[in-house]
Structures are given as structure tokens and as C-alpha cells.
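Sample entry follows:

_____
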Amino acid sequence: MSIDPLVRGRVIGDVVDSFNKSVPLRIIYSGRTVVNGAELRPLAVAGRPRVEIGGDDFNIFYTLVMVNPDAPNPSNPTQREYLHWLVTDIPAAEGLDSGRELICYESPNPTSGIHRMVFILFRQLGRDTVFAPLMRHHFTTRNFSQQYNLGLPIAAMYFNCQRETGSGGRRFRPGHE
């Protein structure tokens, strides 16, 4: 039995509760489709990704949230969660470009450690029912979902990101097991 990558990456637990994926979600940076747990460097994710969402019903709208639950450092995530992007009122039949970007895309640029960058997709109850938070840091996906009656996610995806000169893995430091 294989473990869900969102469980293995602690996205389910740290960011969202367990949910059933009901809509296809594809995140594409510079022609490269993101797979859960992939390693992407800041230069590869500097520009806003292309996002493809399944669905063709003109009466359904989605909200897309992108957060970093590991800011500013995975060992001490005092800004958990950091909101990198928020797009609402995404029509299922038209896609992300027809939605409202409430918080503009801020490219990930971690200074230390490996950070998870998480995309979460919610179904809205209707158009113009979700609004921007006051701050990017200390955002909480669960609270945001509850505040705007979004319920559980309908899709999610994440990738790992570290600074350009990072080593590619978590370092073991003797005495810090």
C-alpha cells in the first residue's frame, strides 16, 4: 500500500485535514509539471505558474491558496503559514486567468532549510464570497477555509524548495538528533 504523498510530506496534518480529491489540479512552471514532493529551486519558480483545474460547470467557482508552512525556517516556522498567492472566483469552465488575484504571486525564496510550497484548491459557495487577509504571514489555511465556508480542500499539491546554493538534503548534526 502506498502512502499518499500529502501525508508523507505532512501537508495533511500541518496545513489541511484529510480530504478526498475531487478535481484534477496541475501546476506547471516553465513547462515542467509539478509532482508532489518534487524539488524545485527558486529560479525555477520565480514566475507565476500556469495552473490547470478540471471542471466545466459555469456555476462553480474555486479559490486557490499557495502557502509556505515552513517560513522562515523549517526548524522554527514562526511565520507559519506564509501566504504566497491567493486567487478567488476562478470559474471552473474558464480557469485561473479568469479569477480574481487577491494576493499577488510572491515567488518562494527560502534562506535556510527545505520549505514545502503548498497549493490548496477549494470550491467556493458562490462568486464574491472570499476576501483577502490583512497579512501574508501567520495565515492559517484551516481558519481561512472556516471563515469563508470553503470546507475541506478538493485538491492539493506541494513541492519542496530551498535556496539556490542548498545542499539538496536535510543535514544531520551530531548532538541534535
Remarks:
- Residues 25 and 53 are 5 Å apart (CA to CA).
- The two ends are 29 Å apart (CA to CA).
- Strands lie at 25-29, 32-33, 38-39, 50-53, 61-68, 82-91, 100-103, 115-123, 155-161.
